Fold:
Amino acid sequence: MSRAKEKPEGAPRYAMTIDLDKCTGCGACMVACAVENNVPPAQSGANDRNGTTLMRVYAMSNKQVYPHAKQVFVPMTCQQCEDPPCETVCPQNAVEYDWTTGIVAQIPVRCLGCRYCMVACPYHARAFNWWDPTWPEGMEATLNPDISTRSRGTAEKCNFCHHRRQLARERAVHEDREMCEDEYQPACVEACPVGAITFGNLEDPNSAVSKGFAKPEAFAFVEKLGTKPKIRYLSSQKWVHDMARSGVPGKEATNG
Amino acid sequence: MIVTRRHILKLLGGGAVGTIFSPIPWKLLRDSSVWTQNWSWLPVPQRGPVGSAYSACTLCPSGCGLKVRTIGGRPVLVNGISNTAWGKGGLCPAGTAIHQMPWHPAQLRSVKMRQSDGRFMEAKLDVALAAVAAAIKGANGTVAILDGRPGRLISGAYREFLAGKGVIVQPPSVARSSMKVLRSLFKEDPGPLAIDVDQVKTVVSFSASVLENFGQPGLLQQSPKKIRTIQFEAIQSRTALKADQWVPIKPGTEREIALGLANLLLKKGYAANWDEEDRTALEKICAEWTPSKVFAASGVDEATLTSVANTMEIGSTVVVAGPDAVGGPLAIEAEASIQTLNLLLGSVGQAIKPVKIAADDPAFGAIDAVETKDLTDVPAQSIEVLIIDMAMAGYALPWNLLADKLAPKALVVSLTPVLDDLAQHSQVVIPTALPFTTVQDIPGHPDFLRSVRMAQAFGAPADDALDPVDFLNRLGKILGINRDVTAADSLSELIEKQAEVLVNAKEGVVLQPKKDPADFDDIDEADELLKRFKRGACFVAAFGQIDTALKFSFDSLGIISDETKKHDFTMQLILTGGVERASLASRSPILSKVDQESGLNPFADGAHVNPETIANLALLPKKRWVVNTPEGSIKVQIRPDPTVPPGVILMSGAPNGPKPWDVANPVELASPGQKSWRIIPAVIKEA
Amino acid sequence: MDKTAISRGLQRAPLGQFLLWLGPWIALLVFGVYCAYLCLRYGLHLTNMDNRFAFGAWIFLDLTVIALGAGAFFTGFLLYILKRKELRAVINSAVTIGFICYSGAVVILMVDVGQPLRAWFTFWHPNVHSMLTEVTFCITCYLGVLAFEYIPILLKNRKLRQIPSFLVFEFNMHKVMYVLAGAGTFLSFFHQGSLGGLYGVLNGRPFVYRESFGIWPTTFFLFIVSAAAAGPSFILLTTWITSKVTKKRLVTQEVYESLGKISGYILIGYVLFKTIDTLVWISMTAPGMGVHPDSFFASKPGYTALHLLEVTIFGFLPMAIYMTKRLRSQIKWLVTAAVLTCLGIVVNRYILTIQTLALPTLPFDELLSYMPSWQETGAFLMVIAYGMIVYSLSFRYANLFPLERELQRN
Structure:
């Protein structure tokens, strides 16, 4: 499927860079994402394998011993692949690559809950609603009206806070002007206290994101799978690049 | 025609086939898809007019500025903003969810009193207050208020309430803050100090989480200049991971390293401008800490020590230590040695002339009338009545440190919005308002440059939530105690009073988000100041210059803590847990994303021990093991972890997330007699 | 008591004894239905599936029973298209088993998906690129075909055939049996294949991704071949078990040997194909995706043994047994080989479903484990119980084995 042929003229392609040198693993991005996207707090019995974390920070270590052990924190979210493995496998077209933004759209109201997309995704970007969403009594008053709540039995993932783009564009239309790209920033980007995440339009060669992609310290995880992810991670440490290349921790991972 | 069964069956069959050609089944089918989107039990976000407001986070002393997005007046999102002299707009995960706190499921909904059988029962406020008043009246021993966040207006009210008869107790992290220790090194207290972060090029940190939270999350990272960080720390904390240079040290050897560095800096002539006496005194103390002695004590080799010393430049390097949210402060001699380096580096910078304190400033009410004590200095079993206000402290205090100070049959009263750890041990628990439901004054850190901001209320507190000012008023009525400077019916009235004082004093400046600072020529009425506060303004005391020459006193460097070496406890238990792993009172349930639904609390699964140590001690993973400390012991799972230094047991001291151990928190293993529980002597034995 | 419902000339156990046999299965069915109800009512968090094990015991069960139920289409193909007349002795049993397997699989699938009310979305918004769409369409159609093949078997019941319209219907069905068999074969080819294709197209999972012929990965064809191999073996096994349980001779030795031989021939193809495919995967496909197969189970070396076992003990060995005339003539060897072949299916589906998901895909992942919860296991057992009940009733009241009457007389 050729994206280039079907992309409308002048349409943006949104992407992200995440600086692993800066990320302290605090988790503010995870909380901001949950708050923005009406993700409920953990139900009893939820853990790191069945919780709904559209943005999730992992710890990656170089598997050495003290004092040579090193670790980076890796915020992992939907990589908004150009060739998303999850799009081709959904039996009812509930996943669609949006040519006008480059965002891989997930349609929760069409999702059957077969979880095939979750099997297909190598980045663990997708979460399934194993529970119906419940908030402590009254806390529904803090829900964001720009995004719906999802029932149990559907899969979901990050969509780069697409509703924020819609709001920004509406505002721009109302004010009779073009939307500038800075007006649209996902919640995690705003929340990061150390500024590790940048977000912007890859079609704009002057955007921070485009410049980030071009840096030598930028890399993608398991690039050889050919999914063409649109998130680049930045790290000045060679071992991080080496590990990211291989999808499986093994002999390759022990090089300093 | 005789209608038979066959006719009816034919009719039904034909009808069924015919229905397929009508819209009915298809509409029903399509409707079912709509039902599946709109089940009645799914919460529907309420709509409303979009607005925004300013506020500040009340969960910890950082008091990060907030921009709040509201829908129909209800807060739905908060973002950190830069609205102080030092903030850069960072916000921690707990602050990111502060707007959900008004609906915290652990919210206290009524006054509770402990019955004779040990259980909590609901009680009437009057009954509880009467009991407290009676205890205060009849107390032979000390009446104390544990103020976890001094500097607030209520702190002044506490002092006025206790004036002449009680003690304000401060948690050790506050009583022995870095700044307090730094100030104690001056012969004459220079008053509040400050660090100009924009001038800093190098930060040398001793086990402080500077790259996670330095005043506010991400402060160093968001500085316009690239700041180089050097971290001396035994374990590889997150700051150590992110630092430009991590120097592994033997646990508990910060003092030796600091004195070794001071020795080298003195040799470089950094104290050339000092008073001769002071310089000689310091040289005498540091002389024995040659690089080889430092290496023997701490494991930091000569080359590393020298290279770090060479990186430390006068005027642009600052040295940081300070209390840890979980492990508390360092021993005073360690902190003092470290702060001495700041004196050598001249990083104290422009000392700030203390703002003339108006006699009627409520925040400073009765400032000299009441004794303030470090909790660890309080004599054992001397407190008869203790009122605990730790709700805005931002960290948890281990109960056993308090327990030791209480007289038998002491009455403990907790003022708290949720039934937290300390409240569980109290006799009387009085609910106070949750964050975002009440206005709150946000003072800066009491030892730093004075500042005042305001947190707003979005919504109303629970019916039973008591305003602490009202609490003191009612108690005062029974006991016949009247307050003067802090007299008010409520905290918001007290805030108005303070605004009046500030406006009349005409000193200082008012910083405003996205605007130029204003001064008191523009703001001549209390109402105007309050309006600015509501729009995110921050009052800051003026900068000035001390005219007296600096003279120092290095007595505290000579103190050796009361820790006798526990020879039986050959390992060191170090507690970790991140920066804002504070008490339950500051974490909305959505923090489960961090605490429970990701692997970011990796030390919560047991005792992490280096595999070499495990092998040496034959700690087989299948058996049950116990960590013994002088204070007590807990059963643990041993987890081999090659990132942990040999001889160290690393455990999570954070009271959040899953807990695989018996006690509420391994921080409770800290001995009451210990002045510092950064390193707890320990040993692992078979269960 | 129900003698009039039992086919003339066939001996069946007394009703009381039969009900005693059915009793535990009914109890298990009730328990299983309760478990399924719990999952539907309260949510799938009652299972031990999670975001990493998005497929679990139920999908594994689905794949296994559909492969084992392939005997239905393959026997039909062999009998009606290739005219292997001896298989007439087992075709009814094969169709019954096929019907049970597919209907059971569909039932469990409705519990497995998060929103069963949206099951029709696949038909309304089909994604032509997705293997699962193909599977859904083909299995639904094939279940219909199986129903059409199974109903006549029931209608031939001694009591039911007394209703003339049923008899007429059954007769007409038999006339178009060739069409049904052909349709069944065609549909089965595709859905058996697409079930394999489900995994082979996953370019995010180097462990299962395979090279393709056209749009179909090799797993597509491997699944078809393995199903074709397992089908006759499973028929052999179930026939033998039924005859042992009911203490009757149901088919001749020739039928067993024929089934074994067919299975054996297909196994030759499977073992060859699978070996080549694995070698290509090890040397070319996985390294091309940045992973050396060595490293998959670096932390748990024992797991690689399972792959080897699948092709050797559960593939090559039964093939050898089946193809040896001397062994083929002994029922005990035939049954052993059948068991091994069926276990091979189980192992293969397990590897593809469970092991794939256990394996890391990112450098900070760990090898994970999964054990179904009791509710999952209960629902799983519901299908087994359902199968036993339907098969028992069919055996009792319909004529599943045409040769039985003849063999009984002798």
Notes: Chain B has 20 helices and 28 strands. The radius of gyration of chain B is 29 Å. Chain B touches chain A through 68 residues (CB under 8 Å). The domain at 50-103 of chain B is CATH 2.20.25.90 (N-terminal domain of TfIIb).
